[in-house]
Amino acid sequence: MKLFCLIPSYNESGNLKELCLRLNSVLKRKKIDYKILFILQGDVKSIEILKIIQKSYPQIGFQYFPNALGIGKAYRTGFLKVPKKWTHVLTLDADLNHQPEELEKFFHALQKTNADIVIGSRFIKGGNFYDKRWWKRIGSQFVNQVINILLGITIKDKTSGYRLIKKEVIANIGLKVKEKGYPFYMEFILLAQKSRYSIVEVPINYVPRKWGKSKMGKIKTLIDYLAFFCKLLINS
Fold first, then answer.
1. Using an 8 Å Cβ cutoff, are 126 and 203 in contact?
2. H-run or E-run covering 26
3. pLDDT value of position 134
4. Strands, DSSP E only, in 81-174?
5. pTM score of the predicted model
6. Helix, strand, coil shares of the chain as percentages rounded to 5?
């Protein structure tokens, strides 16, 4: 495996050092050839922090944008930066909601099933959603259930951003995803299923952030998902 880690980061300077240290520790222990690319947005302090970390970890790189791109556009920007030699792409949040130490589950699932996409799921047996924001927990479960009803999809956590994806999938559908906001995660899975890529879920523990504030606005996110659902109904 040659692993390209792609991490959008908007005003997450207080989380970057811990995330880098923990993620690098896991990947070095597994003796995996890897590269980490941050799509930095907003706070220029993040640049200073990563430049210091790069002295010890040259595998880390970044591209900087002064304004927020939106999670979908940030990932599409990153997808264009994945060189051909890499076999897999890892995506995860920069706010430490996702635990790098749980990557072992992803690697085990990949070895066992050879799935095209492995999703870290909060909603299967063994998974936990410890976020203090009740509205996010309920909202995530709601939008997943709506899509299951509309399209008959069995994946439990289509909005999880913790994913291990074969490079082939990124090359074929990564730039076809149009959503700029959080529905990007769900649209990616829908396109993957239409293309008959295999998907498995592994349980993860989604924990509250230690530093900073969430960038997920309740009203904006609700509007984005309602618009996404309307598009699905029109095109179904």
1. yes
2. helix 13-29
3. 58
4. 88-91, 117-121, 128-129, 163-166
5. 0.91
6. 45, 20, 35
